Amino acid sequence: MSFELPPLPYAQNALEPYISSNTLSFHYGKHHNAYVTNLNKLVEGTDFAGKSLEEIMKATAGDSSKAGIFNNAAQVWNHTFYWHSMCANGGGKPSGALAEKIVTDFGSFEKFVEAFKTAGATQFGSGWTWLVLRDGKLTVEKTANAECPLTDGATPLLTMDVWEHAYYLDFQNRRPDYIETFLNSLANWEFAAKNLADAA
């Protein structure tokens, strides 16, 4: 059973004017698709054929001899999670149990925003910024390249891609503006809230 490029959860122009359909045509149609194609080639005929993305990621994380398999599997997973971490009319503040837990664990929503912006802006080179549940507490984490908190025991709730191809066509080198836009207009808090509820 080979992996397939999962459909976007919205139309390719649904995130405009914040993320353009042009960006999604490259990011989803070219980059994400290439990770799927590469992964299928790498696992064909191996013990990983037929396993889930999560199983492959956990089995290959930190193993330099399997870096190619890990990188492509994790990037397929990370990108799929990222598309769901955004929605039209997103952003702003969450509500309900997620909002309460953010205040409990960060001190205030504003302190969470500050931590998320700092993590995104200070991730050197390519990588990801995450809101995760780790040991029962919400934290903001950043990972390099294809790394994912899922492989070391955390539960991802929301992610923001800070690889340049995620934002360069729309924001050029202004990563802080992209981060601000993600939080203000794109973050899918309902998705994050469901992930938190499912982890309980």
TrEMBL record:
Catalytic activity: 2 superoxide + 2 H(+) = H2O2 + O2
InterPro entries noted in UniProt: Mn/Fe_SOD (IPR001189), Mn/Fe_SOD_BS (IPR019833), Mn/Fe_SOD_C (IPR019832), Mn/Fe_SOD_N (IPR019831), Mn/Fe_SOD_N_sf (IPR036324), SOD_C_sf (IPR036314)
Superkingdom, natural source: Bacteria
Annotated TM spans: none
Stretches assigned to the Manganese/iron superoxide dismutase N-terminal domain: 2-87
GO molecular function, one term: superoxide dismutase activity
Keyword Iron: no
All residue ranges annotated as the Manganese/iron superoxide dismutase C-terminal domain in the record: 94-194
UniProtKB keywords: Metal-binding, Oxidoreductase
EC number: 1.15.1.1
UniProt enzyme class: oxidoreductase
Family assignment from sequence similarity: Belongs to the iron/manganese superoxide dismutase family.
PANTHER family: SUPEROXIDE DISMUTASE, SUPEROXIDE DISMUTASE [FE] 2, CHLOROPLASTIC
Function as written in the Swiss-Prot or TrEMBL entry: Destroys radicals which are normally produced within the cells and which are toxic to biological systems.
Protein name: Superoxide dismutase
